[in-house]
Amino acid sequence: MHKHNFIYSLILTAAILIGAASCEDYLEKYPRASMASELAMADLEGIEATLYGLYNRMQGWHLATHYLAGGLLTDELKVAAANSGRMITYPTNQENTSSFVSWSGRYNDINRLNMMLYYVDELEGDFDETRLNRLKGEAHAMRGYIYFNLLKVYARPYMYQTPLVQGEPLGVTIKLDPFMGIDEDSFEPRATIDEGYQVVLDELEMAISLLPETNDDFPYRFTNISAKALLAKIHLYMGNWTEAASYAEDVIADGNVNLTGTDNYIDAFAETPGSESILEMGYTSDDRPGMNESIQGLAWYDPPTGYGDLILRRDLINLLEEYRTKGDVRPEMTYEYTKVGEDVVFQDKFAGYAGPHAYWDDYPVIRTAEMYLIAAEAYAELDQLTDARNILTDFREHRMDQENAEVTVDTKEELIDLILTERRVEFFCEMSHRWFDLRRRGMGIPKGCPDEDPGIPLEFDDYRIVGRIPNAEMEANENAIQNPGY
Amino acid sequence: MRKKLLFSILLLLIMSFSAAIAQEITVTGTVTSAEDEEPIPGVSVAVRGTTIGTATDIDGSYSIEVPSEESVLQFTFVGMLSREIMVGDQRTIDVELEPDIVGLDEVVVTGYGAIRRRDLTGSVASVRSTEIEGMAVEHVSRAIQGRAAGVQVTSSSGAPGGGISTIIRGIGSFSSNTPLWIVDGVEISGRLSSLDFNDVETIDILKDAAASAIYGARGAAGVIIITTKRGEEAEETNFTLDVSRGYSQGITDLDMMDGTQFVELYLEGYKNRLGEDHWFTQDRIQDAVNLGWMEVAADGSYDFSNTPNHNWVDAVNRTGNYTDLRLNASGGSENTRFYSSLSHNRTEGHIVGYDFDRSSFRLNLDHDASDRLTVDVQANANVASRDITRGGGAFTNPILSAYFVPPINAIYDEDGNFTNHPRGLWGMVPSHSLYSMEVDHFITTNVKTLLNLGASYDLTDHLAFRSVFGLDFNFYDNEYWYDPRGSDGMDNNGMLTDSESNDFSYQTTQTLNYNNIFGDVHSFNAVAGFETYSMISRSSSATGINFPNHHMNVMNAAAEVTSFGGNETERSRMGVFSRLNYTFDDRYMLTMTGRYDGSSRFGADNKWGFFPAAAIGWRISSEPFMAGIDQLDNLMLRLSYGVSGSDAAGSYAALGLWSGGTQYQGNVGIYPTQLPNRFLTWEESRTLNLAINAGAFGGRLNMEIDLYNRWSERLLLGRPLPATTGWTSITENIGRTVNEGIEISLNTVNIQTDNFQWSTNFNISFVQNEILELLPGQEFFSTRRKVGRAINDWYIPQWAGVNPADGRPMYYDADWNITYNPVYEDRHWMGPVQPTRYGGITNEFQIGNFAASIFFQYSGGSYRYANHNRYVQMHNTMNLNQLASVWTERWQDPGDMTEMVRPVHANVYAGDVMTPTSYSSRLIERVDYIRLKDVDISYTIPRAFTQRYNIDRLSVYARATNLLTWDDYSGWDPEFTGSDFFTYPQGRTVTVGIRTNF
Q: Which of B72, B100, B128 is the last residue of a domain?
């Protein structure tokens, strides 16, 4: 009996000890894979890491869709007869295809930038002022750049705001403070287009004032010079020709910026970074895009590499052939192929410089060529036709036989036509340039050769020119207004 | 501190019930079976209302010391009606036990204790080992499918170890509807597929809150309690050897186009799109001729007599087989008893490339250290490995590609080898799935070990203390190898993904059990306890590429590691609980339960929750006024109401979080992943249950009907935020739903003679779910949720068929008028997704030495999206093989009434027409089915013969599963839920086996 009493006491003691183990501590569990916001944003390292996280995101959306959607929506690209089913709704401009910059994704980025810029002002202690300013400058540049992209997709063009269909011309929602969570339940309506562009200008001008002239990590991050290049572009979109020309000339004059000649134009796309790049998304082996998201995967073909889905439209092929006769180097960035019986032409700009199966290229966001063409267009619009002709001739001399390079057209209209043609030849398969060029100039969307299938041109007043605000936004925000037509 | 105090007080209170030990009387006797007058070993002999008890030995005899002459002895044994006898002046009590046909006296495990079914006030469904013995299933859930009212078992794959879900009384929560699984008193995490269900003695399913509230924080979706077999004292160790072998064949099949139809469909598509004379159409015709797919005769007609036709589906299916070996031994001495088992199963699946292997070991040990102290150990280890193929939407998934690959593509070349990758052929299938399957491998290994140690100590005759420590360790290893010779690994010169994860959970439970009877009519049974549970999960994985060759395929051989990762999550709970059962005169019963539980998952101010329940029962048949009705064995009404909870939020759901793991140009990046919610707390379910139990004709008829309402409240939902905030949602406790249901189960013994017995076991459950509240003031959100509809109803554009005039697809708009391009607002509601009725019926026959059972299982009322049909009813978009009906039933001429559109290349129709392949109700079907799930026949060789060879019992058996299905569903398998997408099909199996006891 003594033995049993002993065991009984032992068990009971054990039970009470376990019961007495600190209850509250037992229920405190924190993750090791994540950390709380206050901790994450408590030092400059956290702020800087947030910026890298954002560059990683920017890489993520500067991929095939962002570069090629605009081509498919216009007279630049279409889908081959034998295809993998990817992007097949784009050539017929089906609904939602013009919303190819993700609304929710970009506002997620903006909120991160808002948090970063909010917490950076809360930091305490001594910091390297230059480093701090550079981080802030990059954040402002990126926020401006993202708002510019949202405006390009979800609002009517700045210069042609008056809607030809019913409804108010609206910009996008402007949010410059971080979202505070559970206690916040009223949400912003959309601002006007003018307000939107003003924010974009403010952000980039702020960025220029903060970013050091040293342009470190050029062209892989936002730098003083790339902020200026972006401003040139934004002013062009706004029709502020004087500012556009002046920023473009500033950039061209910068020591970091080169315009390649005919001899090394082709190499510029296979180099890392590209010798013409002012801002470029660089990939490493850890984050290369892969078959489904790279341009090489979708718009290049050398079995078994690539789907070879996206091919050049006949109108562009004809235009390139015409340039080829002038000794132009740019048509060399294409190749012919017979794909399952169909004679097609593929782009060869993004052919995977790291090898046939690597699906790995750097993707330029802004190139020097764009600065020349912005300046030329701005001068033409300002009726400085000689300046326009000169800079365009200079540009063409870097692309084709010298004897064919000189620009001889007389009128402003002809000159602008020529500049738009040059842009088609220069920028096919890059950054959806064609789509945005047509939009910003208030033009309809052509589909090229009339007998080519599929090909239904879009009028400029078509509702599909402007992207659709996602349903999730409409449902969660009672102040949200959908774009007309959707 | 508060909890500590509470616990101590509870402990002391219950201990104070201890009574002094009175002078004792010794009673002896023998227990025999009324059927054959053989002694029964292992019968539990207990003094009612105390913890005093013993068991009969091999000769059926016992000896017990009782406190007084007023003591009542209880004799209970599985499968026998229990008896109670007052001691009086008797010192020798011999007892005969009658067989219990319907299990009224069976013991039901209710969590931290057990109770006779007749005294039960909550709703508990039980499945006994005899019903499921020898089934050809590998998951314990499969064994209860259709056998327990209110329990719905579905799966998304027919593969051993494949996805299976068990839902009790329908889904009520938006986040988790998984019941809590308890094995021998210990919570089990991870996959249960490795538990060998042949070791299972009983499965008790706690359905209403009165039953599950004792599990407080975890009981909202019901509790499934598994009790494994235990050894009994025996003169000789009892061995059972069971060997079986079976064959299986996949039961899903789709009728696909042949080579000729394939070529015809796509040529017609080009013609209908561009016209026959268009250069592009002409080029395609020329292709078809050049590739030898057809010939064009002089008159321009097509000749398909030499068109190749290769049946990929046949090439991928095979007759599967499996071998099952099981050996168990049980027995022991008076003080130490054991049950041990060893089993091995090897399966070659009915799809090429699928092989499964499973071994399991168990040892259950009980030792009586003294009259008062018993220690027990349960040890269980399982190893399961699967060698499968790539699944899902990859072209190298052989099940998928068997249906996708154009039948004109050859499988083998002239030498019988696999053809070279037919990448770039007209069909655009960039891989040869069978070749990839041969060189790639997908191996998953799962090791599960369960270990628990228990001790019971009788503090007094009325009070017992029990302590349980349980460990559950799961280890998973996945190795996915994409061979450089196969199409998936080619681009990377071979790719290897190696991932490992493990989870480890640790539980401690201390309980006090009090049992007493006052004045012969007031029977008390109380339990109180304290429990802690914690779990930690870890995982890591890496992917490497660029291997020198296919012989070197471990991570060290990779030239480049492209991704790697690792994570850890941890959670914990603790709680105190108590339950009181009171019975007055076998007529009135009252159960009160309460549990106070804390979880690490919630915000600081909302960690703790209290979960009470109460139930009453009234046995009308024991009332004096019912005394005259002899045919009625039992008539009882039960009513219960209670609350149970669920902490099925993410492990750190209440915290605002940032994560890392991204980089740009080699610099580490971080990003916010979760908004904090300091208010986050328990989900709760409140159940009101009204039931009637009735038994009549000496156990020949037994019926149970349950009516219930289960309100699930404070449900965790992501409140959608406008994207402009940077977030898509924040998790809050906002939803409320109700499940209303009826469950009927009926057991009858239809015929019972000396040589023939026929019994039927029938159950059916009806359940309906309705969303009562979403966001405050909001009727609808998140595309598929609406107040008044069930969870996950479809909100979808409505298909209106094919326009008989021109073959274009038609849809309905918001007002049910025809439209060709429905917009978002044109959607209509359809549903529910979950079945609204389900159940099963088993008929068992016993004719002499033959036994047979036939089991049907049924389910109905659900609306399912036939997901895979999206890809084999794509018409002319992707040049993949299609259902034969896409061609044979296509629209051809004005006036054709059909569901299959006119073939047009890329499905581009004149005007603004939404392609038929878009998301619409076209592929949603109502699913109702009855399946002949299981037929089992066995013959026991006469004992007189087998005993000559020292064999106690020898039986041979044959079993067939999934023999017949009655359904209208055109999809993969009516039984499958979830992503019904070219998953491993269920098998129609035939098994033969021999079971020997010696």
A: B100
Of B600, B656, B878, the CB nearest to A27: B600
Q: Which of B85, B100, B115 is the last residue of a domain?
A: B100
CA nearest neighbour of B523 among B590, B462, B583, B460: B583
Question: What does the pLDDT look like over A172-220, one tens digit per residue?
Answer: 999 999 987 777 777 888 999 999 999 999 999 999 999 999 888 999 9
Residue B867 lies in a domain: no
Residue B865 Rama label (left phi>0; alpha psi -120 to 50; beta): beta
Q: How far apart are CA A246 and CA A268, in angstroms?
A: 26
- pLDDT, one tens digit per residue, over B135-191 is 656 677 777 888 888 888 887 778 876 667 888 998 888 888 889 999 998 888 766
CA distance B122 to B133: 27
User: What residues of chain A lie within 8 A of the CB of B780, using their CB?
Assistant: 475
Q: How far apart are CA B371 and CA B461, in angstroms?
A: 11
Structural domain includes residue B243: no
pLDDT in tens, B36-48: 778 888 788 888 8
pLDDT bin (cut points 50, 70, 90) of residue B17 is: very low
Residue B16 belongs to some domain of the structure: yes
**Could you tell me the CATH number of the domain that includes residue B38?**
2.60.40.1120
Q: Does some domain include residue B38? A: yes
To the nearest whole Å, the CA of B979 is away from the closest chain A CA by 21
ipTM of this predicted complex? 0.88
The reply to whether residue A7 touches residue B563, judged by beta carbons under 8 angstroms, is no
Report yes or no: B670 at the A interface, CB cutoff 8 Å.
yes
Candidates A10, A52, A86: best to mutate against B (most CBs of B within 10 A) is: A52
User: Which of A34, A286, A480 comes nearest B673 by C-beta?
Assistant: A34
State whether the Cα torsion B619-B620-B621-B625 is positive or negative: positive
What is the distance between the alpha carbons of residues A459 and B369, in angstroms, rounded to a whole number?
92
Structure tokens at B900: 């299959």
- Residue B738's SS3 state is strand
Interface of B with A in 858-887 (CB under 8 A): 877-879
> DSSP readout, A401-418?
-HHHH-----SHHHHHHH
* Min distance B503 CA to chain A CA atoms (Å): 15
pLDDT: is A27 or B3 the higher one?
A27
> Distance (Å, rounded) from C-alpha A361 to C-alpha A351?
7
Q: Which residue of B has its CA nearest to A41?
A: B658
pTM above 0.90, yes or no: no
* Minimum Cα–Cα distance from A53: chain B residue: B669
Residue burial B473-510, b: 16+ Cβ < 10 Å; e: rest: bbbbebbbbbbbbbbbbbbbbbbbbbbbbbbbbbbbbb
A286 in contact with B at a CB cutoff of 8 Å?
Answer: yes
Q: Is B306 on the interface with A (CB under 8 A)?
A: no
Measured between CB atoms, does B718 come within 8 Å of chain A? Answer: no
Q: How far is B243 from chain A (nearest CA, A)?
A: 44
Nearest to B659 among A34, A107, A454 (CB): A34
A456 touches chain B (CB under 8 A): no
Interchain contact B305–A (C-beta under 8 A) = no
A108–B723 C-beta distance less than 8 A = yes
Q: Is A357 on the interface with B (CB under 8 A)?
A: yes
Of A360, A71, A113, nearest to A222 (Cα)? Answer: A113
Question: CB contact, 8 Å: A28 with chain B?
Answer: yes
Q: Which domain holds residue B274?
A: 259-308
Domain count, chain B: 2
Q: DSSP string spanning B825-866?
A: GG-EEE--SS-SEEEEEEEEEEETTEEEEEEEEEEEEEEEE-
Residue B259's alpha-carbon distances to B255, B263, B309, B888, B955, in angstroms, are 13, 6, 5, 13, 51
